Amino acid sequence: MTITTSSTPQLNLPTTTKRHKLHHDHHDHHHQQPLIPGLPDHIAQLCLSQINPSCLFSISSSWRRFIYSPSFPPFFSLYAILSPSSSPHTFQTSSSTTTTTTLSSSNSIHFYNFDPISTTWRILPPPPLYPPLLLRHPSFLSRNLSIQSISVSGNLVLLAATTLNLYPALSRPLIFNPLSQAWTFGPTLATPRRWCALGASCSAVYVASGIGSHYSNDVAKSLEKWDLNKKTGEWESKKGLKDGRFSREAIDAVGWRGKLCMVNVKGDAAKEGVIYDVEEDLWKEMPEGMLGGWRGPVAAMAEDVMYVVDEVKGCLKKYVAEEDYWEEVMVCESLKGAEQIAAEGGRVCVVSGGKISVVDVVAAQPRLTVVDLPQGFQAVAVHILPRMPVTDFSI
C-alpha cells in the first residue's frame, strides 16, 4: 500500500496476493465509459487488477471506482484505534470534603481507517452499544488501561477492555469486517476478562489468562479458542497454563508457525516465556534466544517472520529461528517507546508516543515513514487489513 506523510514521498506497499473472482458491474457499465476503450470490461478488469492501485487512482474516475469495487483485489490499509490527544482528565472538587472525578472526552476511543491510495482517514461506522471502554482511570494516572484488539481472517476483533469500575467491558468480541463495513458480535466468553493474552493462529482467536470481575486462579490459567470459520462459533476450552503468572498485564500471544508465543511482562524487564502448540494442544518453554530478545512489542508477518521493537533502544529486529537470535533490521529514534506493532504485506507498523511509523522491511535498505494522524488524535493501536470499498467519490 502507499503511505504519504508531510515530509516523505509516497511509499508503495505490496497489495494482497489473494485473488478474488472478478465481477462485472452492470450499473457502472451503463453509466461510465469503458475501463479500457476497445476491450470488454471483464477483460479490462483482468488487465487492471495486475497493476498497483496507486498507479490507477489518479488516471480516471472509472479506474478509481474500479480499484474500490469488489472486482479489484483488496489492497492493504491501516485500521487504527485513536484517542483525543488533549488533557486526559478533568477533576471537579465540591465545596464539601467529597471529591468527584469526571473523565473528559479525551478518555474516549475512536475507530479509523487510513486509505493509503487516496491518503485519507475515514471514521468507521460506530460499533454496537457497549459499556464505555476506559483508556485512562483517575486511580492510574501514570498509565493507560489496555484495550485489546487483533486482526484475524481479514477482520478487526476487539476482545478485552476495562470499564470505570475496573470490570471487563466486553462479554463477547466485537468484530469489524472491512468489506461489509459492518460490526457484529462474536460468541460469549465463558469468563469475560481483561489483562489477558490475546492472539490468533490461522482463522482462530485465542485468549489466555487474565482476570474477570475478580481474580480467579482458574481463569488466570485458562486458555480458550474461537475458530471464526466454524459454524458452531463457540469458544472451546484448551489446555491451560501451569500457573497464573500471565495475568499481570495485557499481552500479545503472537501467532507464529502454528504456535502462540508470549511472555508474561512487557518491556525490558526480566520475564518468563512460553509457547503453545495449537495442533498438539501443548505448552512448551520458549527458546532462550527468543526470550532474551523479547524487549518490546512483537508481531509476526503472515505468521512466519517475527519482528520485535526494542522499546528502549528503538531497534527493530527479526527473529532467525534456525539460530535462535534476533537480527537487527534498523534503529530509529521514532521507534523508541514502542507500545504495539502490526506486520503484514512487507511492512511493520509501530505505535510509539501516540504516533504510527511504517517500516518497509522488504526494501534493500529498510525505510521508515511516519503517518500523519487526524488532527487532535493520537494512536492507541494499529492493524493492517484489506481496504474498505468506496461508493462515495465526492470527497
TrEMBL record:
Domain of life: Eukaryota
InterPro entries: Kelch-typ_b-propeller
Feature: compositional bias, Basic residues: 17-32
Chain intervals for the UniProt region annotation (Disordered): 1-35
Coiled-coil stretches noted in the UniProt entry, renumbered to this chain: none
Bilayer-spanning residue ranges: none
Biased composition (Polar residues): 1-16
Organism: Lupinus angustifolius (Narrow-leaved blue lupine)
PANTHER family from the UniProt entry: F-BOX/KELCH-REPEAT PROTEIN SKIP25 (PTHR47590), F-BOX_KELCH-REPEAT PROTEIN SKIP25 (PTHR47590:SF1)
Protein name listed in UniProt: F-box domain-containing protein
